[in-house]
Amino acid sequence: MFTHIKDFYRGETALQQLDGVAPLGLRLFLSPVMLQSGWTKLVGFENTVAWFEHSLGLPFPEVMAALAVGTEVVGGILLLLGLGIRFITIPLMVVMLVAAFMVHWENGWLALSDASSWLANDRVLDAVEKKQRIIATLREHGNYQWLTSSGPVTILNNGIEFAITYFVMLLSLFFTGGGRYLSLDYWLMKSTDPKTKESLMQN
What's the CA dihedral at 96, 171, 88, 54 to 10 degrees? Predict the structure, then answer.
């Protein structure tokens, strides 16, 4: 009994054959995130360049913007396919770190203003009164029920939470790769493995 539990905990069971499911989940989550981010920068490329230059103070803003767009769009596609995962996660992690520390860092951790969180900073706490004022204005001058029918009023804090979360997910993929059975990387590596070739020739 204890041996079975130990084997289960170590992953030395039938679960080992399904260990590609977790990387697949990360890839399917991250792929549309990267594609959307890259697409948004691409369709507003001039604004992206201006933002990189004036707000972020990056050198060669056109080149940097193009690299960011290319990394996110190509990265999103490769994540979906499970191709070149250990290569593409590196530039994607760099993009996430740049986003976290050059764009979101000053706003703290939280992506949304939640004053009840132990991670709330002064910026988040200051948003409480502003949110109350917004709600009061909407109740007085608008159809509040209709305006909030898709969700409650929320103030974006724009902290590092999402960027760091994506970074950690990409870091995990860097170590695990695209995953067993469910990535092109797996099948490409399998097809070029000498042992596999020898087995195919014998059969």
Answer: 10
Radius of gyration in angstroms for the set of CA atoms belonging to the chain, rounded to a whole number: 23
Q: What percent of the chain has a predicted confidence (pLDDT) above 90?
A: 83
How many C-beta atoms surround the C-beta of residue 44 within 10 A? Answer: 12
Using one digit for the tens of pLDDT, what is the confidence trace for 149-175?
A: 999 999 999 999 999 999 999 999 999
- Both tokens of 13, joined, read 């069971």
Tokens for 55, please give them. Answer: 């707000």
CA distance 21 to 11: 13
The Cβ of residue 102 has, within 10 Å, a number of other Cβ atoms equal to 15
> How many angstroms from the chain centroid is the CA of residue 141?
38
Contacting residues for 129 by C-beta, under 8 A, at least 6 apart: none
Encoded tokens for 110? 């939280």
Instruction: State how far Cα 96 lies from the chain centre.
Output: 8
For every residue of 28-72, DSSP letters joined together read HHHHHHHHHHHHHHHHTHHHHHHIIIIIS--SSHHHHHHHHHHHH
- Report d(CA 153, CA 151) in Å as an integer: 7
pLDDT, tens digit (0-9, with 9 covering 90-100), for 76-85: 999 999 999 9
Which residues fall within 8 angstroms of residue 80, CB to CB, at 6 or more apart? Answer: 27, 28, 31
Q: Say which amino acid occupies 181.
A: Y
